Amino acid sequence: MSNLKVTVVGAGVVGLSTACAFQRAFPNADLTVVAADIDSGIVSYVAAGYLSPTVAKMPTSDLAVLGKWTAASSEHYRAIATSADSDAAGVGISPLCELSDKPNAEEPFFAPYVFSCRRLTDDQLDYLLPNARSAGIATGFQAVTVYAQGSRYLPYLMHNLRSGGRVSVRREKLNSLAEAADGGCHLLFNCTGLGASKLCSDPDVYPSRGQVVRVHAPMQKLALHGPGAFYVLPNRDDVVIGGTAGAGSFDLNVSETDTEDIMTRAYRILPALRTARILGAHVGLRPYRRGGSRLEVDRGLLDGLPVVHNYCHGANGVGLSWGSGVHAVELATEALRSGRPRM
Fold first, then answer.
1. Where does residue 196 fall: left (phi above 0), alpha (psi -120 to 50 degrees), or beta otherwise?
2. Which of 56, 109, 219, 267 is buried most, with the most CB atoms less than 10 Å from its CB?
3. Known binding site: residues?
4. CATH superfamily assigned to domain 5-339
5. What is the pLDDT of residues 313-328, one digit of tens each?
């Protein structure tokens, strides 16, 4: 399609993934990315970015769709992790223990999409994590999964996007999606996360406040993910320990009480972390939506202009972003083939 002009609103991991996926599919299109924040002010920068979506934290109730996103994202990250771009992108492969406080916990949803997921015997759980049972852990699954460190991966996506040509990036705080389309475009992607509450008047969008602590712990190679927003996730530059899940809270201030609680839980299961140097605590607002993520074409919002909504992935934004971005591009392709609107 010649002279195709497309706008992506939002420069978090979902917006940039969607933009890169679209650029791959339409390399000759003119692409504009519009966002109020295009750097470390974005919640994606705080994320450890492990691919381990679980039923309890699913961004959508449609398991087929979630499986599609998980499979595509897993393969995308695996390809980067095994390439020369691995370090620059902050993308890697890591062993992971999924922990549960339920004695007969079901196999995690992500099991088919990662490498060699298996239930640990009691002896194996005790061998890997001798203090887990005293901390209330009853069951464990071990797998090998992929991760993308947000503080490296987002700049990597932006670099690839700019290198692809025919891309402009505009820092602008919008009052409506219509403002992003004012310059003229044939299609618009809405990847605004929490901003969708205002920009497209979605009353179902709400935040979940997440606080993490980053520590210097090069000895910690095993990632842990468990109940009660507990996780210990090694990244390229540090280890991310969490967390909290404050539904409805917009508070971006670091809580010393939360920091103490997070580290106390971690020390109970991994006493070796007591010697780790704390680098700092960070807070981000995860974008959630009652009813699940929104991924659909909307022709009624901007006078017939196709708007592809792709927002609110909850705690799985980094992990599932590539898969949902590819899905959004598939919907966009169908919308464009059905008739390109006049600008």
1. alpha
2. 109
3. 192, 231, 286
4. NAD(P)-binding Rossmann-like Domain (3.40.50.720)
5. 998 899 999 999 999 9
Higher-pLDDT residue of 58 and 151 is 151
H or E element: which one contains 321?
helix 317-337
Cβ neighbors of 330 (< 8 A, separation 6 or more) are none
| Average pLDDT for 220-233 | 95
Backbone φ and ψ for 255, nearest 5 degrees, come out as -100, 120
Helices within 26-149 (DSSP H only)? 63-81, 86-89, 122-128
Q: How far is CA 128 from CA 122, 142, 186, 242, in A?
A: 10, 10, 54, 20
Q: Which two tokens stand for residue 49?
A: 């970015």
Q: Which spans in 185-316 are helix H?
A: 196-199, 256-269
Report the binding-site residues for FAD. Answer: 192
* 86 secondary structure, DSSP code: H
Buried b (16+ CB within 10 A) or exposed e, 8-30: bbbbbbbbbbbbbbbbeebeebb
**Residue 201 pLDDT exceeds 80:** yes
Token pair, residue 41, equals 């002010």
So where are the chain's domains? 5-339
